[in-house]
């Protein structure tokens, strides 16, 4: 059932090229320049007239929501708030019938997310679900939705659910951007073409596995790790840290790279591995200067870089390459090596990768 892999988690990491393709199949029609999503199409007015989108989720799904915030605001020019479902539901939040709430959940059973949806509905908001499990409680409770077609995710640490959630949310953002006229035709077409290339690029990123395993060997005995990223890749830093924590039990924190100097930099010494997402895009120079700051404090730098990068290579202790893509799509690639790193470290430390202590696949109690 593990299809020849040692663990479900590894199998699911390797399934991502297919899972992403299955998620956009029938929706992304790049040649025709169309995104077909009935759940969005049938409620277009709700989305287009919304004052804002509120995304509610927990854990990894919340990280996918953060990536979506960048995409929706950047490409569709719709204001977005991303909320931990557990905080949102107890905060007496301001919700009106001009709000659209998007609930993201792999299992579709997370108690806090379900409660947040019920609250939003009571206040008249339109609620849209992004779930993986068909017919789950959240899928049934929402007004409309779009499934991720990741297939069953058995490993407790979420991997393919995350990348397929980002895929669905990207499709929604692009579709709304097009409807609103927030994106030019040529840009829209370019995004569709680039999204269609992602599965092959994920396969390419997976080819670094042997190299990533060697990097894992070097850092498996660390007791603390930092993960840094900017822009679209800030949520990827959070997700990288979460993956390491939950399966290897190594303490890790994700930070926006520029926040480092407001505190975490005090932690940096030669014992501290710092994983930096430094792909060649928007904030590249800024990330390079963050790397210099770490280096001058003797921190160990492991950088995720764009294929062919030379600048970061000169500074970092280790680099792991991913193919080039649009900045907005880069989380789909930069996440891959961080998943593999956590996996290999956990295996080397003899941890129960698929069923980490204290964790459950679906959190049906608050
Ligand atoms: C992380 C993880 C959890 C879940 C969270 C939400 O790897 O598995 O953080 O992401 O419990 O679960 P869903 O998406 O099922 O609502």
UniProtKB/TrEMBL annotation:
What is the annotated localization of this protein? Cytoplasm
The reactions it catalyses are: D-fructose 6-phosphate + L-glutamine = D-glucosamine 6-phosphate + L-glutamate
Q: Which GO terms describe its cellular component?
A: cytosol
User: Example GO molecular function term?
Assistant: carbohydrate derivative binding
Quote the EC number: 2.6.1.16
> What's the domain of life for this entry?
Bacteria
Which gene holds the coding sequence for this protein? glmS
Portion of the full sequence shown: 250 to 615 of 615
Question: What's the stated role of this polypeptide?
Answer: Catalyzes the first step in hexosamine metabolism, converting fructose-6P into glucosamine-6P using glutamine as a nitrogen source.
Give the enzyme class. Answer: transferase
Q: What is this protein called?
A: Glutamine--fructose-6-phosphate aminotransferase [isomerizing]
GO annotation, biological process: amino sugar biosynthetic process; carbohydrate metabolic process; fructose 6-phosphate metabolic process; protein N-linked glycosylation; UDP-N-acetylglucosamine metabolic process
Protein keywords: Aminotransferase, Cytoplasm, Glutamine amidotransferase, Repeat, Transferase
Start and end residues of each SIS domain: 43-182, 215-356
Q: How does it assemble?
A: Homodimer.
* Active site feature: 361
Is Cytoplasm one of the keywords? Answer: yes
Q: Which organism is it from?
A: Winogradskyella jejuensis
């Amino acid at each position: 059932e593990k299809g020849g892999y040692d663990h479900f988690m590894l199998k699911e990491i390797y399934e991502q090229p297919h899972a992403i393709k299955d998620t956009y199949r029938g929706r992304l029609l790049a040649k025709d320049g169309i995104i077909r999503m009935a759940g969005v199409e049938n409620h277009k007015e709700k989305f287009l007239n919304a004052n804002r989108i509120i995304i509610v989720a927990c854990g990894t799904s919340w990280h996918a929501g953060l990536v979506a915030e960048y995409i929706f605001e950047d490409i569709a020019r719709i204001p977005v708030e991303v909320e931990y479902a557990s905080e949102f539901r107890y905060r007496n939040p301001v919700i009106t019938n001009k709000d659209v709430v998007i609930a993201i959940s792999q299992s579709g059973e997370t108690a806090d997310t379900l409660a947040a949806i019920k609250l939003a509905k009571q206040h008249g908001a339109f609620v849209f679900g992004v779930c993986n499990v068909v017919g789950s409680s959240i899928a049934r409770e929402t007004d409309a939705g779009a499934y991720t077609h990741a297939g069953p995710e058995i490993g407790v640490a979420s991997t393919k659910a995350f990348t397929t959630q980002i895929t669905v949310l990207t499709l929604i953002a692009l579709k709304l951007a097009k409807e609103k006229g927030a994106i030019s035709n040529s840009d829209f077409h370019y995004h569709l073409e680039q999204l269609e290339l992602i599965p092959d690029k994920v396969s390419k990123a997976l080819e670094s596995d042997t190299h990533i395993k060697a990097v894992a060997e070097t850092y498996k005995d660390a007791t603390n790790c930092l993960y840094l990223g900017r822009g679209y890749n800030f949520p990827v830093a959070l997700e990288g840290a979460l993956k390491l924590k939950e399966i290897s039990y190594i303490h890790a924190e994700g930070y926006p790279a520029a926040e480092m100097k407001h505190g975490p930099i005090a932690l940096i010494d030669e014992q501290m591995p710092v994983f930096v997402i430094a792909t060649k895009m928007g904030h590249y120079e800024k990330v390079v200067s963050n790397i210099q700051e770490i280096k001058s404090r003797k921190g160990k730098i492991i950088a995720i870089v764009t294929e062919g990068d030379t600048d970061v290579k000169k500074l970092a202790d280790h680099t792991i390459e991913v193919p080039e893509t649009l900045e907005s799509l880069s989380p789909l690639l930069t996440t891959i090596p961080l998943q593999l790193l956590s996996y290999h470290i956990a295996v080397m430390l003899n941890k129960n990768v698929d069923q980490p202590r204290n964790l459950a696949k679906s959190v049906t109690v608050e």
